[in-house]
Amino acid sequence: MRAAARDRDYDAVASAIEDAVGSGREVGLQVAVVSGDEVLFEMAAGVADKDTGRPVDASTLFPVFSATKGITATAVHIQAERGLLEYDAAIARYWPEFAAAGKGAATVRHALLHQVGIPHMPDGCTVERMCDWNWMTRELAAQAPLWPPGTRSGYHAYTFGWILGDLVRRTDPGLRPFGQFVHEEIAGPLDATDLWLGIPDAVEPRIARLEEGRVPVELPDDSLARRAMPQHLFTNQEVFGRPDVRRSCHPGAGGVCDALSLARMYALIASGGAARGRRLLSEDRVVNMAAIKLDDEDVVLGRRVTRGLGYWVAGGPDSVSTAPMGMDPASVGHPGAGGSVAWADRRRRVGVAILKNHMLSPPTPRDNPLTAIGDAIRAALDAPERRG
Question: What does pTM read for this prediction?
Answer without folding.
Answer: 0.96
